[in-house]
Amino acid sequence: MSTEEILQEVALEVSTCSKCNLCKGRKRAVPGEGNPNARVLFIGEGPGYHEDQQGRPFVGPAGQFLDELLASINLKRSDVFITNVVKCRPPSNRDPLPEEITACNDYLDRQIAALKPQVIVTLGRFSMAKFFGNAKISAIHGRAQKKDGYICIAMYHPAAGLHQASLKNVIREDFKKIPLVIAEAERMKATAPKEAGTSAPKEEPPQQLSLF
Ligand code: URA
Ligand code: SF4
Prior knowledge:
The structure is a single chain. The protein is of the alpha/beta class. It has one domain (3-190): Uracil-DNA Glycosylase, subunit E. Helices cover 45% and strands 12% of the residues. It has helices at residues 3-15, 22-25, 49-54, 61-72, 98-115, 125-132, 137-140, 158-163, 165-175, 178-191; strands spanning 33-34, 40-44, 81-84, 119-123, 144-147, 150-155. Strands 1-3-2-4-6-5 form a 6-stranded mixed β-sheet, with helices on both faces. Residues 44-48, 51, 57-58, 62-63, 84, 124, 159 line the site of uracil. Keywords: 4Fe-4S, DNA damage, DNA repair, Hydrolase, Iron, Iron-sulfur, Metal-binding.
């Protein structure tokens, strides 16, 4: 199956999923959307009111800020893929529960495996925890690290920037690193040794990104 077909299959399953209690309060499930060839995948927390109404990720106030952040690095929504840790809105926008995240995790894993993004940007602490365990966002935000075979960068959630003015600029500065990390990922791919058996020189790919 092509990337697009896998993403469509996941979206179809999500639209009628009842694997956790969040299915009860939702108007629409929000599987995520974007470019099947995206180099960058953004993973948020879960749908809010507007997302639940429209069935699309990041279309409320946090989404407007995300659009601004994307534009600041010359990216459009149609260049990237955007999804969430849970695909259905938690009641009153409460935090997703561990069992809800676990129930929904397979959809996210299938999206990641299909997209094979060069860079994964986690937005907020729930998607951060998937890759960075219980690291503190204040300590690791904006730094690229290789996790589960992907180059990941943890960022504050855009909604945090709306509530706390001082974080807004931190998020803006962190976003500016994304093009550099994409360029670094491209360079690593270009210089990576070819498959075993070819005459390419054997060199261990760097675990620590040289840029950061
Ligand atoms: N916040 C999120 O984490 N995800 C959305 O899709 C919208 C707001
Ligand atoms: Fe299914 Fe995920 Fe929605 Fe729970 S949050 S009902 S697991 S799609």
